Amino acid sequence: MLTLDLTNAPRWHDLASGVQVQLRPLTTALMVATRSDPAVEAVPDEASDEERAVAFAKALARRAVLAWDGIGDADGMRIDPSPEAIEALLDVWPIFEAFQLTYVSKGLLLEQEKNASALSPNGPSAGASDTAKPAHPTRAASKPARNARRG
């Protein structure tokens, strides 16, 4: 079952020990805006899938990050999110991976859910239960089948 969060409130996500980011909900509007981001559109046609993924993730993060905690500059001073700081944060591999897993992939899970099939009642994925009793063999053979009236 698809569960809707009608509040659309931002949520805090842990990306690493001591590093949290507050992110907007991953909505259709946010995804569409990110796809038309100039940095995403500037990715050359011959770019690899990985290069496209990095450009998209950074563009999405620039739009989604509202606040953060546990992030500072080279001197250890707390800094606020900015486009440059957000890109620098995603250049840290474990942070990039955590962002992809905790935020981006959650939006993609819905795609997987709608492509899933119910378990087969027989075969390797047997899991569905019978909903009717089997037909009684003597009753079925004792009466001929009724034909539909015509005309």
Given helix and strand content, the structural type is alpha+beta
β-sheet strand percentage: 5-15%
- As a whole number of angstroms, the C-alpha radius of gyration is 26 Å
Level of helix content?
Answer: 40-55%
Largest sheet: number of strands, sense, barrel closure: 3 strands, antiparallel
Unreliable stretches: 115-127
Strand order of the biggest β-sheet = 1-2-3
Distance between the termini: 47 Å
pLDDT averaged residue by residue: 82
The general outline is elongated
Strand count: 3
- List the secondary-structure elements in sequence, H or E: EEHHHEHHH
Secondary structure tally, helices: 6
Description:
It is a single chain. This protein has a three-stranded antiparallel sheet. It has a domain at 11-114. Residues 115-127 have low confidence and may be disordered. The chain contains six helices and three strands, in the order ββαααβααα. It has 151 residues and is of the alpha+beta class. A hairpin with a 2-residue loop joins strand 1 and strand 2. It is elongated.
What layout of secondary structure does this protein have?
Blueprint: E1 11-16, E2 19-23, H1 28-35, H2 38-41, H3 49-64, E3 65-69, H4 83-90, H5 93-114, H6 137-142
Antiparallel strand pairs: 1-2, 2-3
Helix pairs in contact: 1-3, 3-4
Briefly characterize the structure:
This protein is α+β, with helices and mostly antiparallel strands.
List keywords for this structure.
151 residues, alpha+beta, 6 helices, elongated
